Amino acid sequence: MKLKFFLLIFFILAIVLLALPLAVSASSDSSDQITLIKFKTNEARDNFVKSNSNSEVSKIDRIARVEKVNFLEDKWLRVKNVFNRDIDYIETGQKVKINAIPNDTYYSSQRGLSKIKAISAWNITTGNSNQVIAIIDTGVQLDHPDLNTKIWQNEGETSGEPDVDDDDNGLVDDEQGWDWVTCESYIPNTPDCQPGHSKIEDNDPSDEHGHGTSVAGIAAANTNNSVGVAGVNWQAKIMPLRVLNQEGEGMPDDVALAINYAADFEVGVVNMSLGTPDNFSVMRDAAAYAYDHGTVLVAATGNDSAQSVDYPARYDHVIGVGSISSNGYLSTFTNTGVGLDITAPGENIYTTHLGSVYGGWGQGTSYSSPFVAGAASLILDSQPNLNADQINAKMKALGDSVAGFHNLKYLNLWKALKIKLIKTTTSHTYLVDGTKMYALWPSNVFWQRFGFSSSYVETVSLATLNNFTNKGWLKGLIRAGSSGSVYYIDYNRRYKVWPSTIFYKRWGFSSSDVLNVSSSLLSCYNNAGWLSGIVKGETSNQAYYIDRGGRKYAIWSSSVFWERWGFRYTDAVRISNAQLAYMTNAGRLNGLVRSQSNSQLYYIDNGGAKYRVPFGSSFWSNWNFNLSDVSTISNEQLAYMQNRGDLSLFARGNILSAVCKMRQGRCFSANPSTNSVSTLTQGQFDYLRRL
C-alpha cells in the first residue's frame, strides 16, 4: 500500500510540473549550457516555445533551444520527455567554443610552414582556384588585404537583384557565405530579437571577434603577392560561415547548419577550429551528411589538456587535429584520446588578424586545424579521387613522429603530396614518381618498409595509369638517378648500402633490384647511416648478424663476440620490427662456422679472420665446442674472411706473448717450443684464460 501511495504522489507531482512553464535560473554555472529538444512536429515545438520564455525555435526543423539550463531544470525536462509523446530526444551540453588560447606575443616568421615542409610541397602544387575551404568560425574579415581576393563567391546569387533567393536555397543573397548568429543577444524593443523568436540570419559573415580571420589566413591567405603572410593553399577560395559570436561562443545547431551548407555546395574541405565536450545529434548527423557528400571535415581537438577529444573532432570521418610545438613535442594543452588523428603546429603562429594587420595571435589546436585543412585541399588537388578517410590515412601514414609518441604523427605536407599511390580496379598498386611508376612488391613487409599504407591508394582509370612509364618492381633499394649511392629503405628511413656483392648476398638482394628514382623522392626519407651486417629491432637490444638472403643469427651478448667478428657496437642498425620478424631465424652466432657448400669448419677470431678447424674428436673436447655451436653462412661471407691457417692447440694473444695450451675448454700456460701457435685477439685469449 505504501509503495502504491508514493507512486501516486510521484505521478501527481509530475503532472503538475508538466502543466507549469519551465522556470529558468540565470546562474553562472549554467551560462554556457544549451539544451536542444527535438519534437515530432513543428506544432509541438511551437507550443513548447510559447509556454517557455527562455526557449526559442531553432533553424533546424522540429528543434527548440533552451539556454542557461541548470542541473535541476535539465532533470525536469527529461521527466517531461518521459510523459511527452511529442518529443524525440532532449540533449544538454556546453555551447560550441573556439579552440584557442590567446596571448600577447607576436612573432615575425611563420615557423609552422617550415615545420610541415610546405616550401618543398609547393614545388608539387599550390592548389587551384576551383578549390574551396569553408571556415566555420567567427566569420572572416572580408576586406583583409591578404584575404579579400580569396573570398568565395556564390555564382548562384549573381542576378544583382537584392532580397531575392536566386539559388533557391532558403537564404537570400548569400553571395559570400552566411551568418547564423546575428542578433545573438536579447535586444529590447526589437521584435525579431525577442525571446521565443528565431535569431536573425544575414548574408554578411564578417568577423567581429578575430578568430576566424586568423584561421582563414593559415589555411589559404593570398600567397606570393608580396603582402603579409602565406597560406598553406595558395589558390583555394575561402567560404566564410559565421556560427560563433563576439565572445567566441555558438550553438551546435548553427554549426550543423553551416556544415550542411558547405556540403550542399560540394565544398572540398571544411575547417572547424571550435568544439564542445558534448555530443549533439544535430552535429553528428551533419558530419555524416557532409561525409556522404564527399566533403573532408577537419576540426580542432580542444585545449583542456584532457584525455577526451572535443566534438566534432571526435566524430567518425572527421579529421581531429592536435597541436605540436616548434620542436615537435605535443603541446601540453592538446586534448588527446579517441578522435586525435594527427597534429600540426599550434604555438606561436604568425597569421592574419582582424583590422587588416598580422601577428602571433595566440596558440591552440584552433591554429593546428587550418594547417591540416589547407593540406587536405592540396592533396585533393593532387589526387581528386581520394575520400576523407583516405586523406586522413595518408597524412597519418606519411607524417613525422611526434617526439615521445611512436604512433602519433605531425603533418609532413611534402611527403603527403610527393608519395602518390595509384591503381586501376584490376592492376597492381604503383608508386608515381614524376612521369614514371614503380610496381609495389605485394607484401605487408614492403608497405612497412616504405611507410606506405594501402588505405590511401587512389583508384584511377586505365587511361590515367597508361600516362606513366612502368619502370619495374619497387622492393627496397633505390638511388637518385642512374649513379650515386644506393639506399635501403625501411621504417621511413634510408640506409646507405655497402657497395659490394657481399652486401647483396647477405641481404638477399641483387643489383637488378636497385631502381633509379628522383632525388626528391629519395629526400623524403631521412638518412640513418650505413647498413652493415648487424641489426636490432625498434624495441629490443638483441642484435642479429644478417646473411644468406636475409637470414638472421642472434649474436652472443658479449664483447668477445664483437672482437671475434670484427664488428663494433656502432655497427648495429635499428630496423623496423616487421622487417626483422620477416627474416628467417637461423639460430645463434657463436664462433664456429661452415659454408653452404663445404663441410670444413672454421673458428672465427681476430677481426673476422678464420682458422680452419682440424677434424677429430680431440678438437671438440679440447676447445669445449659442440656441433650445435656451428652456424652455416654463405660461401661469399666465408670467402670474404681472411684465412689465418689451422687452429692449433696452442694459442697466444695478439698483444701479450704468453702462450697456453687448450684442454677441456681451459687454457693452461705452456711453452710450445716448435709447436704451431694460433694468434688470437687479446680479448679472445684473455677470455679463454678466465674459463
Written description of the protein model:
The protein has 691 residues and is α/β, with parallel strands linked by helices. The chain folds into 5 domains: 2-94, Alpha-Beta Plaits (2-Layer Sandwich), CATH 3.30.70; 98-161 and 209-416, Rossmann fold; 421-531, no CATH class; 534-589, no CATH class; 592-690, no CATH class. It is built from 20 helices and 44 strands. The strands form 11 sheets. Strands 8-9-7-11-13-14-15 form a 7-stranded parallel beta sheet, with helices on both faces. A 5-stranded mixed beta sheet has the order 24-21-22-23-25. Strand 31 (534-536) and strand 32 (544-547) form a beta hairpin. Helix 6 (211-220) packs parallel to helix 9 (365-382) and helix 7 packs parallel to helix 8. The chain is elongated.
Percent in strands: 25-35%
Number of strands: 44
Radius of gyration: 35 Å
Q: What would CATH call the architecture of the largest domain?
A: 3-Layer(aba) Sandwich
Query: Could you describe the largest sheet, including whether it forms a barrel?
Result: 7 strands, parallel
Q: Tell me, what is the CATH class of the largest domain? A: Alpha Beta
Distance between the termini: 92 Å
Provide mean pLDDT, rounded: 86
Q: What is the general shape?
A: elongated
CATH superfamily of the largest domain: Peptidase S8/S53 domain
Structural class, please? alpha/beta
